[in-house]
């Protein structure tokens, strides 16, 4: 059974940094897409960044140049390094995985098979 467990959230001031981690277990697909999504109260879920098994990445425009998605295959862990954080980045962040390569025009819609429980990120001004 696939499990995704996020960690690393917290409260920071504007301009600060956080690194989110997503530990995956029971996931043995050779081809996959993994992503980070976020949702804040009253807003729709938003795709933040995605990476596939070939190392290709994609970001929502609002985080380009500030966030970096990466993976450590030896540790079965996905990361999201978040720098220059802004109050608008405040949200619950979710890790997601799917046993298909990312569809770069649709990954942000969130059609992923597996989801974690989320980790809260709060950025104060």
Structural summary, described in words:
This protein is an all-beta fold and 125 residues long. 0% of the residues lie in helices and 50% in strands. It has no helices and 11 strands. The termini are far apart.
Distance N to C terminus:
40 Å
The main β sheet shows up as: 7 strands, mixed
Average residue pLDDT: 95
> What percentage of residues falls in helices of 4 or more residues?
under 10%
Tally the helices: 0
Q: Which regions contain 5 or more consecutive residues with pLDDT less than 50?
A: none
> Structural class from helices and strands?
mainly beta
Envelope shape: globular
Instruction: Bin the strand percentage.
Output: over 45%
Number of strands: 11
> Radius of gyration, rounded?
13 Å
The helix/strand order is EEEEEEEEEEE
Essential attributes:
125 residues; mainly beta; seven-stranded mixed β-sheet; four-stranded antiparallel β-sheet; 11 strands
Task: Give a quick rundown of the structure.
This protein has 125 residues and is mainly β. It has strands spanning 3-7, 10-13, 18-25, 33-39, 46-52, 57-59, 67-72, 77-82, 91-98, 114-115, 119-124.
Helix-strand blueprint:
Layout: E1 3-7, E2 10-13, E3 18-25, E4 33-39, E5 46-52, E6 57-59, E7 67-72, E8 77-82, E9 91-98, E10 114-115, E11 119-124
Parallel strand pairs: 2-11
Antiparallel strand pairs: 1-3, 3-8, 4-5, 4-9, 5-6, 7-8, 9-10, 9-11
